[in-house]
């Protein structure tokens, strides 16, 4: 048997390539939309992708299962659990097998047993692997998707928070408790291959270790040690982070079937064409340069989301699916940026433009950067308004006196006064730089952000409100 893990650090998502070296067949579990790297690795190992399996209808990234069915003729193993509202609408148009609890399927001499593990979502499945080709008589491990992570379990509130399905959080928490009890009955030696690592919004406190075992999780994962159902439900629902805005769209897209990827190149345009596209309106100019560079010379009217580890998350929060996108990007980054946006179905990139061209065509803007002491002095001015763009848990843990809380993910539509100086901060300075570019793009004239964020300000000895 061949097994390799693939990790998308921007989505904190794991995909798995499992192959039978005797027959040359291989399967991908939870494939990303861009699976080219995985397919290439399979070919290098002398394997051909014949199948893909989904653990559930994903909310945080665009599934690549339909694309693999189209490109490679792969058979899809999809959940048939969860009831009528949780079926894959595109299953009839591909070679798909709908799985129920207790079902078995094989890829060559590698066997998979299906275990229905609802709670994160009603249709969630886990897959127990046995390497029969290697002579094993019993299972080696389990692919848990968004059910069990290293040190945590999947959150049951996403359907309610992201998709507006009232009452599903409580019901999901109850199902999750029952699924955990069943998981605890598995052999301790089984390897646990989770669907996400640290940084995913699908849980509260996911570990950064890529694998675990059933026995280790039973000893160390809080959810495995909580025996009281009501206490479990209260704890799993308490303090969950806000669900990113794009999660609702991902649920819809992955259920109905993602659009097949376009293979046409996206043009790199000059100043004239860039201005024509901007003048057409209803679009967004997305500047992907580092904040330190963009903050000194913003492309007028653009929002700056630096192309780094957090790029996809904030793009999902801040870009509407009905907005054409003009991307300001350094040469050599176009392909990676396109892939990152397409990984959450933001497919509407109209053109790329180089920074110097965009600055020449649109003009420049800027926001101020203040040290903690300068920020404290600026707060004393009569027209100053302090904007805290951190998340709810950070705000509740401690904040500046007099600050207003306006979470970054909502800042493009928040109502704010245009006649006041806006002093923006987050925890470290990265999110407030994005926020400052948004405010400038919205036409606010006097915007300054705190270098080093709340952490630096607190360390400098300034007062906080608990």
TrEMBL record:
Its EC number is 3.1.2.6. InterPro entries: Metallo-B-lactamas (IPR001279), Mito_Persulfide_Diox (IPR051682), POD-like_MBL-fold (IPR044528), Rhodanese-like_dom (IPR001763), Rhodanese-like_dom_sf (IPR036873), RibonucZ/Hydroxyglut_hydro (IPR036866). Gene3D superfamilies: Rhodanese-like domain, Ribonuclease Z/Hydroxyacylglutathione hydrolase-like. Residues 380-466 form the Rhodanese domain. This is Hydroxyacylglutathione hydrolase. Pfam families: Lactamase_B, Rhodanese. GO terms for molecular function: hydroxyacylglutathione hydrolase activity. Keywords: Hydrolase, Metal-binding.
């Amino acid at each position: 048997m061949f097994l390799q893990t693939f990790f998308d650090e921007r989505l904190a998502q794991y995909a798995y390539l499992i192959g039978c070296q005797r027959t040359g067949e291989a399967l991908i579990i939870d494939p990303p939309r861009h699976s080219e790297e995985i397919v290439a690795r399979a070919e290098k190992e002398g394997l051909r992708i014949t199948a893909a399996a989904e653990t559930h209808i994903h909310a945080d990234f665009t599934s690549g299962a339909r694309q693999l069915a189209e490109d490679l003729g792969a058979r899809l193993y999809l959940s048939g659990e969860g009831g009528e509202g949780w079926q894959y609408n595109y299953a009839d148009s591909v070679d798909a097998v709908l799985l129920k609890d207790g079902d078995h399927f094989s890829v060559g001499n590698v066997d998979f047993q299906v275990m229905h593990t609802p709670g994160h979502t009603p249709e969630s499945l886990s897959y127990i692997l046995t390497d029969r080709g290697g002579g094993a008589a019993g299972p080696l491990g389990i692919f848990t998707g968004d059910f069990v992570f290293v040190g945590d379990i999947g959150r049951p509130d996403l359907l309610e928070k992201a998709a507006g399905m009232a009452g599903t959080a409580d019901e999901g928490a109850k199902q999750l408790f029952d699924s955990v009890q069943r998981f605890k009955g598995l052999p301790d030696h089984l390897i646990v291959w989770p669907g996400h690592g640290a940084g995913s919004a699908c849980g509260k406190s996911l570990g950064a270790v890529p694998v675990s075992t059933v026995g280790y999780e039973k000893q160390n994962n809080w959810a495995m040690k909580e025996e009281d159902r009501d206490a479990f439900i209260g704890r799993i629902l308490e303090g969950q982070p806000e669900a990113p805005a794009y999660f609702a769209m991902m649920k819809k897209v992955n259920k109905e079937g993602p659009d097949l990827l376009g293979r046409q190149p996206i043009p790199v345009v000059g100043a004239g064409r860039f201005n024509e596209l901007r003048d057409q309106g209803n679009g967004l100019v997305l500047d992907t340069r580092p904040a330190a560079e963009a903050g000194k010379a913003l492309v007028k009217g653009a929002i700056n989301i630096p192309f780094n580890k957090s790029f996809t998350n904030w793009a999902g929060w801040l870009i509407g699916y009905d907005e054409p996108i003009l991307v300001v990007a350094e040469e050599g980054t176009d392909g990676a940026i396109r892939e990152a946006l397409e990984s959450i179905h933001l497919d509407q990139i109209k053109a790329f433009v180089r920074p110097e061209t965009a600055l020449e065509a649109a003009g420049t803007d800027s926001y101020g950067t203040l040290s903690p002491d300068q920020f404290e002095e600026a707060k004393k001015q009569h027209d100053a308004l302090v904007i805290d763009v951190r998340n709810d848990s950070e705000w509740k843990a401690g904040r500046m006196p007099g600050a207003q809380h306006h979470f970054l993910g909502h800042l493009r539509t928040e109502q704010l006064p245009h006649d006041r100086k806006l002093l923006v901060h987050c925890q470290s300075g990265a999110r407030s730089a994005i926020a400052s570019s948004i405010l400038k793009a919205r036409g606010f004239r006097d915007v300054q952000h705190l270098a080093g964020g709340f952490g630096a300000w607190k360390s400098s000895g300034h007062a906080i409100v608990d």
